[in-house]
Amino acid sequence: MTLEELEALLNARSEGEHLEFKEAKGKYEFETLVNYCVALANEGGGRLVLGVANARPRSVVGTKAFDIPERTVGGIYERIHLKIVWHEVAHPGGRVLVFEVPSRPKGQPVQYKGRYLMRAGEELVPMSPDQLKKIFDEGRPDFIDLPAKAGCGEADVVTLLDVQSYFDLKKRPFPSTRKEALDAFIQRGFLIVESGVYTITNLGALLFAKRLSDFGLERKGVRVIVYEGSSKAQVKDGKDLTGHKGYAASFEALISYINDQLPASEAIAAALRTTTRAYPKEAIRELVANAIIHQDLNEKGTGVTVDIFEDRIEVTNPGLPLLPVDRFIDENQSRNESFAGALRQLGICEERGHGIDEVVSNIEAHQLPPYACRLGSRHTTVVLSRYKPLKDLTPDERIRAVYQHCCLRFVNNKITNNESIRERFKIEKQNAATASRLLSEAVAAKKIRPVDSEAANKLMRYVPYWA
Question: What is the reported pLDDT for 37?
Fold first, then answer.
């Protein structure tokens, strides 16, 4: 590795999935090194760099660890059977030692002493059952590629699938012949044809089924439940409905239905009655789209659920997230890439990684509390709460709001400071001390950090803790 290549690593925006920096000025525990190699391998491979400060701007501090790297990588191989490549770089700031860790074999997570590890922020944690299952399932056909119904003729396909809705979403005229329309479905993996006989894939059924029950996929329909008050004690007016059509064919109608069920206030001005919903429709759209995209389609007997309460809305999908909750805004990793790609092409969801950005932008524009994420044993729930004034936010809500604001500003190349926090919470300039207190709370909670802790108060800028 050359000095130029090392400088490129030092200037990386964040450690992300494939890069880890450790100061390790003196010695570094061999067992910790092995554990990090396990975690990096399970995440697709990467580099562990010793002798470099973790915080940006990263500086070389030099390391005395592992003075015989050949022996070190030999010891790693004996324990986890991965061939690690090492590089020693003589930097003006000191010796830098880089370990290149290959990706795990396909379908085989790496373990050490019975622990399948991954990284979560600055910690090493056991991989979740959901993540292990995904690795073990590699090599098997994806759920969306499996046949949903075979032995279909052209007439059967157009009876079972809402073919017209595809061309409506693409804003294209319907082809002159039915065969041309079905050819478009074949090109996109919605159909497979052999000797003139069609097979509808799960992807085609999930997106365009006229009735999901025709394919045994009725439990994949989005369920919307409206409750009286703030508990699940009573369903409001029997409003417990499950969608029966494919996601693409029914998405706009689904979002309109959910929007109509949301708490609202009315105002009359100049003889016109206007209705304002408790939540921005754009945020609801992104949350529901994300839940559909990131659900674990291999989970049986469960699907996406939207629970609407008087004081909040909860969107739940089967499966646990592949990323730490704190990194939803700045990173993206899809459980169902082909499925997500099809929905993006149809305009159902935002481009890669922009969905949660859009949610936070709308939350801030409408002065709502920050979103919350709740993890169950096999489900992920995102909660959006109704408006509350700043004085009524809990300490946890205030810290999350500042953290999410800081993440959004960071990924958009904007700075977070007292002024931006005042704008976020609509705090008057004369009350700047309130904004300073909010920033201090988030710093104390280790969710954000100052770029330069020695800067004057007026010049103080902040970034997320991982930046």
Answer: 96
